[in-house]
Automatic annotation (TrEMBL):
Species assigned in the record: Bacteroides uniformis (strain ATCC 8492 / DSM 6597 / CCUG 4942 / CIP 103695 / JCM 5828 / KCTC 5204 / NCTC 13054 / VPI 0061)
Record's protein name: Transposase
Length: 72
């Protein structure tokens, strides 16, 4: 749940659901499926962080360009 404090509010519900699914079903799977699940969850979290960063930069770009200045 520590990760939820770093995610934007819009992603927190998805992250909680994904964590519950991984915790509930991950322990009953064969070890190679568990490893694949861990990698998949890690990739999803990294992708969400990247998208959040890109969206933040685009919002800043449009807000700053409206004033006549472009700061990235």
């Amino acid at each position: 749940m520590l990760l939820l404090s770093f995610l934007p509010t819009s992603w927190q519900g998805f992250a909680t659901t994904l964590a519950k699914l991984c915790q509930r079903h991950g322990k009953t799977l064969p070890i190679w499926w568990q490893n694949a699940g861990k990698v998949t969850c890690w990739l999803v979290v990294c992708w969400l962080e990247l998208c959040s960063d890109i969206i933040t930069r685009v919002k800043r770009y449009w807000a700053d360009s409206a004033d006549g200045f472009i700061i990235l």
